[in-house]
Amino acid sequence: xxxxxxxxxxxxxxxxxxxxxxxxxxxxxxxxxxxxxxxxxxxxxxxxxxxxxxxxxxxxxxxxxxxxxxxxxxxxxxxxxxxxxxxxxxxxxxxxxxxxxxxxxxxxxxxxxxxxxxxxxxxxxxxxxxxxxxxxxxxxxxxxxxxxxxxxxxxxxxxxxxxxxxxxxxxxxxxxxxxxxxxxxxxxxxxxxxxxxxxxxxxxxxxxxxxxxxxxxxxxxxxxxxxxxxxxxxxxxxxxxxxxxxxxxxxxxxxxxxxxxxxx
Length: 264
Description:
There is one protein chain. Helices cover 54% and strands 11% of the residues. The protein is mainly α. It has three domains: 1-69, 2-Layer Sandwich (Herpes Virus-1); 72-170; 172-243, Alpha-Beta Plaits. Strands 3-5-4 form a three-stranded antiparallel β-sheet. A two-stranded antiparallel ribbon has the order 1-2. A hairpin with a 2-residue loop joins strand 4 and strand 5 (219-227). Helix 1 crosses helix 4. The longest helix is centred in the middle third of the chain and has 80 residues, at 91-170.
């Protein structure tokens, strides 16, 4: 292809570096994406099998010509004309008629050849469509395999998220009765540490994570405390049962003496 090549559809220049196709009939070049309307499957098939390509205009012209030739005089008309020769005709007349019949037979043979060509052409189109269907089937199977893999990966991610959420829940403790509405975040931390250290003296500030308040209407808030390990939560709940009654004075919290609850 030279740089002087122009697209047979849009009549603009076809660059060498652009994807393009050349029609085997009219020898014109076409932009492969915008002008030929070739699908991804067809382009893949042509590229893999290196098959010749024919533009839509030439395909329509071929089918039209073959269809017109197929409508010529049939062989039954020749039989009718032979049977219509009257008795007593001289040899010259019969010979002349035979020459006409010979010419018509040649035309019929040509028509039959063109019909055969038409059938071969249609058969080729059928085979091409079968190959396209096979490529599409392969692509569908590839997509199904990719979808199956993605579903498996998604399932693993969901399981991991559930494990993370479950682990978060297993490291949380609820404390009620040790706090006031006016307590700052620093005070909440100090009171929570005193309560937990009274129950389990191995607990220190480094073991505490996030502290959140749960407001209760007209009452002191409940505090949610997260610890670094779920084993610490289990130990605190076990020792809480051994401590018995738990209140603010026993934990060293200087407020009115109220009972502290750590729900199991």
